[in-house]
Amino acid sequence: MEGVETPVSEKSPTRCDGPQTWISITSKSAYHVPAWWNGTKYKDGPGGTMSVSVTKSGTISAEMTVGSEAEMNAVIAKAKVSVSGKIGASVGITTGHTYSHDIGKKKYGHLQYGSWGYKVSWKKYRAQGNGCGAGTVIASGKATLPTKEVGWKYWETSS
Fold it and tell me: Could you say which architecture CATH assigns to the domain 17-153?
């Protein structure tokens, strides 16, 4: 279900002989990552049937609110293991996809093409003392991560 954030079942990270820093994914929610390039968003109505057919290609990339490229790569690697093996840094898409949907009476239909991905929250830890036990949080943030599953998202509005 899109937008419902769920905690990731992962115990508080601890290390003894492991790396000095590590990433943990703390929550995830399904999210339709929109393709913002021209030709991937439509509005029609009021009422009727909305049909779209597009052939276009582009890339949807992961985004992070805070952090370096190295942290982004670490978040993606950790999310692949603890959220979904389908997650990637970017996904190239070609839309050659036809879609139709009836629009409610006096409503406007909207279609947006994109990737059925995830929003995740993450924390980066540094080992303390001898490296055993819980680490110290040294960074945290949120990331929007696409998957290779792409398609249309439909919704309606009053205007």
Answer: Beta Complex (2.170)
Residue whose pair of structure tokens reads 């924390």 in the numeric block = 123
- Model confidence pLDDT, tens digit, residues 58-105: 888 888 888 888 888 999 999 999 999 899 888 887 767 788 999 999
Angle at 121 between CA 117 and CA 126, to 5 degrees: 135
Q: For the whole model, what pTM was predicted?
A: 0.64
Question: CA triplet 87, 21, 78: central angle to 5 degrees?
Answer: 15
Of 10, 38, 16, 14, nearest to 122 (Cα)? 10
**Can you read off the two tokens belonging to residue 54?**
């597009």
CB of 2 closer than 8 Å to CB of 30: yes
List the structure tokens of 11: 């115990």
Instruction: Provide the residue type at 8 as one letter.
Output: V
Residue ranges per domain, the chain? 17-153
For residues 77 and 117, what is the distance between their CA atoms, to the nearest angstrom? 15
Instruction: Please state, in angstroms and rounded to a whole number, the distance separating the CA atoms of residues 2 and 18.
Output: 35
